[in-house]
């Protein structure tokens, strides 16, 4: 294939290898040994994930259907107890089944999320995914990197410069111009990028550990200073703890929220992480009409409640046996505790606990990136509302850009202008009164 495309380039039968007037052409030059072609000429076929009837889903056996929630930001596929279907027709199975080196692209929800299927088991793409199948002389990982790049994001309509509707459909993607290096060079590029990303991940982990240690140290210092204050010495420690965990205290109610989310979302292999429960708890408090600025602050991953971690709620949930800390491989977080069933005697009493069920119904299966997007956009909207300003994607972008912890978000595909607009549409569906009042 490469030799044919290169020969065509030499004859000048197609667009130039460098920047061209066509909006879809390459904005950069490529080596002479490479070819340039439309993606539709590079991949063998595209396929929209099939839809299945309720009677085709099975609890045991069957074939897993890969969803956006099974795709990581790094392009990997990690099955998170996906729905399974029974496909008895061999022809249908041959049509639906993924093969090694297939590229998956999300066309709805978290638009533009991508991953490469590495094989090793049978799987089918869900209805909101597009499957692109490449020939043996092409590695899908190279085109995952191409479409994930700023140039690729711009083609897909996912960059900050994009103002129209994202071009995430098979027809549009087939028309994008892309470089076609020799297979050996594709593999070398992929290997080098993976090497660099491993280094970046290690540095981010070190930074997160340092920040966590600093936060823990600050909390300990504040606690120690506060405990030395005369007003704190007047009450015995036992009495203070009882107040914090009484059945109608804010701390106890938040412990219930944490327990609800843990029961519904955690599994032995996937404990509920703090980032995920923070975002879902935030949305639950918003749905209950509470003032989220009381406990939530702007942190790198979006709205974050240090109060829930350091001031009682998490500890109460653990001490009551509602939840317990757990880990499975690299995944760490909360698992349901031995006394989790006890929360059923309390949750109906509190509006935020009742809101948890609706939030889980609307957002419980979203990716962490999508939850970060929704919670961040909504927290920005709360700021705009308080300042009496209109709420739209451009204004939300300005709020994000103005905060030093949030500004780096705008370099990520999930925080493109198109996704900010999409998030506002989804939030208005869940909070119609709030977003309706502002316009």
Automatic annotation (TrEMBL):
What Pfam families does UniProt report for this protein, alphabetically? Answer: Methylase_S (PF01420)
Q: What is its EC number?
A: 3.1.21.-
Residue limits of the Type I restriction modification DNA specificity domain?
A: 33-206
Q: Tell whether Lyase is among the UniProt keywords.
A: no
Q: Which residues form a coiled coil?
A: 193-220
- Top-level lineage group: Bacteria
Q: Which CDD domains match?
A: RMtype1_S_EcoKI_StySPI-TRD2-CR2_like
Region entry Disordered, spans: 1-26
* InterPro entries for the chain: Restrct_endonuc_typeI_TRD, Restrct_endonuc_typeI_TRD_sf, Type-I_RS_S_subunit
Q: Name one GO molecular function term.
A: endonuclease activity
Say which enzyme class the record assigns. hydrolase
Bias (Basic and acidic residues) occurs at: 1-20
Keyword Coiled coil appears in the UniProt entry: yes
Which key words are in the record? Coiled coil, DNA-binding, Endonuclease, Hydrolase, Nuclease, Restriction system
For this chain, the family text in UniProt reads: Belongs to the type-I restriction system S methylase family.
Question: Mind telling me which PANTHER family this protein's record contains?
Answer: TYPE I RESTRICTION ENZYME MJAVIII SPECIFICITY SUBUNIT, TYPE-1 RESTRICTION ENZYME ECOKI SPECIFICITY PROTEIN
Q: What is this protein called?
A: Restriction endonuclease subunit S
């Amino acid at each position: 294939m490469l030799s044919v495309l290169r020969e065509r380039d030499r004859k000048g039968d197609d667009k130039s290898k460098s920047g061209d007037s066509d909006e879809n052409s390459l904005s950069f030059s490529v080596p002479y040994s490479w070819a340039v072609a439309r993606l539709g000429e590079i991949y063998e076929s595209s396929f929209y994930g099939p839809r299945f009837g309720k009677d085709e889903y099975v609890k045991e056996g069957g074939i897993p259907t890969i969803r956006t929630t099974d795709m990581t930001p790094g392009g990997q596929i990690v099955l998170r107890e996906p729905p399974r279907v029974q496909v008895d027709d061999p022809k249908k199975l041959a049509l639906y089944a993924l093969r090694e080196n297939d590229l998956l692209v999300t066309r709805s929800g978290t638009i533009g999320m991508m991953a490469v299927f590495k094989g090793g088991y049978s799987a089918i793409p869900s209805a909101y995914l597009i499957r692109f199948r490449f020939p043996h002389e092409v590695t899908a990982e190279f085109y995952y990197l191409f479409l994930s790049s700023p140039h690729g994001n711009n083609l897909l309509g996912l960059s900050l410069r994009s103002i129209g509707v994202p071009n995430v459909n098979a027809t549009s993607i087939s028309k994008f111009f892309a470089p076609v290096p020799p297979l050996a060079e594709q593999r070398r590029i992929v290997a080098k990028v993976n090497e660099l990303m491993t280094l970046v991940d290690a540095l981010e982990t070190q930074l997160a550990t340092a920040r966590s240690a600093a936060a823990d140290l600050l909390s300990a210092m504040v606690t120690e200073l506060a405990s030395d204050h005369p007003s704190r010495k007047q009450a015995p420690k036992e009495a203070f703890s009882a107040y914090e965990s009484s059945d109608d205290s804010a701390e106890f109610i938040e412990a219930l929220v944490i327990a609800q989310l843990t029961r519904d979302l955690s599994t032995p292999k996937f404990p509920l992480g703090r980032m995920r429960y923070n975002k879902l708890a935030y949305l639950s408090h918003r749905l209950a009409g509470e003032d989220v600025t009381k406990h939530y602050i702007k942190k790198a991953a979006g709205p974050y409640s240090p109060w829930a971690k350091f001031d009682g709620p998490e500890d109460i949930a653990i001490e009551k046996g509602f939840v317990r800390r757990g880990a499975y491989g690299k995944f760490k977080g909360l698992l349901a505790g031995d006394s989790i069933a006890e929360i059923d005697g309390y949750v109906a009493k509190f509006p935020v606990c009742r809101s948890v069920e609706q939030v889980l119904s609307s957002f419980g299966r979203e990716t962490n990136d999508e939850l970060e997007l929704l919670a961040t956009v909504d927290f920005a909207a709360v700021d705009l509302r308080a300042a009496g300003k209109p709420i739209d994607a451009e204004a939300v972008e300005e709020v994000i850009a103005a905060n030093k912890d949030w500004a780096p978000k705008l370099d990520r595909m999930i925080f493109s202008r198109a996704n900010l607009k999409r998030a506002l549409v989804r939030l208005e569906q869940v909070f119609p009164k709030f977003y309706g009042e502002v316009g």
